[in-house]
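Notes from hallway chat w/ T.B., transcribed later so I don't forget. T.B. wanted the structure written out for a chain they're using in a teaching module, and asked if we could keep both sequence and structure tokens in one place. Agreed to drop them here.
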Amino acid sequence: MAIPRSAAEALCAEHAWRSFPRAVLLLGRQTVTFDAPTLLGMAAKWGLPAPAIEIDTTTLQARANPDRQWVSDACFLAMLGVTEIHAIDHSDYEGADIILDICQPIPPAHAGRYDLIFNGSVLDNVHDTAAALRNIGALCAPHGRVVHLETATPTRYSYSALSPSWFFDWAVVNGWADCKLAFGSARDWAGVVDGPWAMLGFDPNAEPRPNAFTPDIGAELGVQLVIAEKGAHSTHDRGPTQAHYRSDADWDRFVELAAPIRASRRPFYMGQDGTGAPVAGYGGVWRSCGHW
């Protein structure tokens, strides 16, 4: 579970749009895959306070790569104003303080408690992905946010590869206030870890019936970033019907429920060379976000 540099840039952009709360829930402690000079450069770029540097000696990936001198998740999040970190995991092997199975029913004490949840590639490593997604939705407080970072193409490390529409359609039918999708590609795992990623952003207003199908990236590895914001009355337990099986009545209801997401003013994060222009071959549904 990780926060690569490219994802960290997107988190900085989201923080600039709406400041992060002081407390955050991580789904597993996160390996931040960049060093102190990179972190300090990021702080300068986004006008953020430089945090006290702490090197990660806890997470599995950091222990396997001690020469990289990666900063800790607490160090990175402190730059974004986070002072309290909780982490859920199936065991405490990386320092999680809440031990539970994300695929099983959530204890009532945790329901609706967390204003910001970060999932750094958990869903592709659990067997019951739909149950886990519902539970993440249950953990999130009204008006809270969930950030998902997941592999989007099959890899030897994952049980499954989840499509953008799997996230988007769930957010729509459960009445979430926003669901911003970005889809990236890298040539190999080194590219995923160190970036930059070539990014596209989903435009839910490009077609009358929004369908966040998976872009064709050939043989490259796909990653996706999902920023979902819960509404005051959003649910978490409704399952969508896939786009090509919907009746006209189903589509009418789907478009109605998608209205808050389509009206959202949350901007795309435009990295290097990002223009927001429609990308040829994707019908204008996906737009260029450049390289993160």
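Follow-up for T.B.: The longest strand covers residues 140-151. Might be a good example for the class.
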